[in-house]
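Follow-up to my earlier ticket, as requested here are the two runs.
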Amino acid sequence: MNRTLNRVLLPSLLATTLAGTTLLPAKPASADDQLLRNIGIGAAAGVATGAITHRSAVRGAINGAAAGAAVTGANSALGRHSGHRDLPRDAAVGAAAGTVAGTVTGRHHAINNALTGAAAGAAINLLTH
């Protein structure tokens, strides 16, 4: 079942998520829309990173979603709009949030947690820029 999940469901989920983020509406998004969008992008990036590193897809999604929420919060706190974002900062915020989320969920692999969070932060920056 796990192989079926990794070979069939995860690539489909990733493709659907990436297609959905490229078809975002042209109107300006509200703060709630941005938060939900970034949580979704982060979760998808977490699942993809988890599949690459052979980790749990659920924990990867949780880790990525936490990174997405943290990146949104950091950008809101700094008053940044999507046109003035910084890739290294978003990746660093995602890495920090991923490390914390991994510790909370019992996934005590700090490097993998940081990589998952950084990938989520970078994906958010690249897809919403």
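Run two:
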Amino acid sequence: MHEIAQAHPPASEKGRDKGAGAQEFLSFTLGKEEYGIHILGVQELRGYENVTHIANAPEFIKGVINLRGIIVPIIDLRIKFNLDAPCYDQFTVVIILNVGGRTIGAVVDSVSDVIHLDLARIKPAPEMGTTVDIDYLIGLGTIDERMIILIDIEKLMSGVGMAPLALAA
């Protein structure tokens, strides 16, 4: 659907000095929450399309698609994060990612924009005890009144329970 050629900052941030202590994230929504992933891992954005289902795959693996000759496993982050049941509509987006040399698609409710965060605006994720796995979180970013949950997509895609992704590919 859309290719991401370059990440452009919002007009309000143009002209601002972007030092080495800043990072760019693609922000997206899952339910009522906003998340972000490093823009450098994003290959392209596509609308949600039918997938070929894989027998006995975990529920969060929706299936695979053929993307210009490459078989790409598609995971639904809403299901992976145990959020409400997914609803696929005209706003549903598949973020095509390059993770550890593999191409993977992640289904999200919608994509917001590319955000520029200074390191000072990124706070570590709070400790939640052993019941909540936060190893894949970079931290929480703040822009004005918005709080964005920043995900290390490499850690998430290689974490516990993700081994079936290699089989799907």
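The only thing I checked on run two: The radius of gyration is 16 Å. Let me know what else you need.
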